[in-house]
Amino acid sequence: AYLVSIEEMKSRRTLEQNAYMWALLTAISQQAPAHMGGVYYSPHVWHKYCASRFLGVEPGPWGHGVPRSTANLKVGEFCDYLAQIEAWAIDEFSGWSFEYEAAA
């Protein structure tokens, strides 16, 4: 038996989405310490945290899971991922705000 699946080929996330993600993670990095007793984490640490939280982990060496990568997410999947991060940040950090203006 064979199963053939045909689906629209969608491209990976865009450069604009990537820039938006890093701006979002930078905003979280800058505002989170006020809600975490002054503890600061870099945008890169938040990137790994969010990937683990919203995408899950895959098995790693010696039983240590590693965050799933965001690199191969399709445009729509990445959009959903960013929306999850924003919704979480709004809920997690009272008064959290984020405004993004794309580079011209």
Characterization of the model:
This protein has 104 residues and is mostly helical. Helices cover 46% and strands 4% of the residues. It is built from 3 helices and 2 strands. It has a two-stranded antiparallel ribbon. A hairpin with a 7-residue loop joins strand 1 (57-58) and strand 2 (66-67). Helix 1 packs across helix 2 (43-55) and helix 1 (15-31) packs parallel to helix 3. The chain starts with 14 loop residues before the first helix and ends in a 12-residue tail after the last helix. The mean pLDDT is 90.
What is the structure about, briefly put?
The chain is mostly helical and 104 residues long. It contains three helices and two strands, in the order ααββα.
Notable traits:
3 helices, mainly alpha, globular, 104 residues
Mean pLDDT: 90
H/E topology pattern: HHEEH
Radius of gyration, whole Å: 16 Å
**Major sheet strand order:** 1-2
Biggest sheet record: 2 strands, antiparallel
Tell me the distance between the termini.
53 Å
Label the structural class.
mainly alpha
Counting DSSP H or I runs of 4 or more residues, the number of helices is 3
Estimate the global geometry from the Cα principal axes: globular
Helix content: 40-55%
Q: Please indicate the percent range of residues in DSSP E strands (runs of 2 or more).
A: under 5%
Q: What is the number of E strands?
A: 2
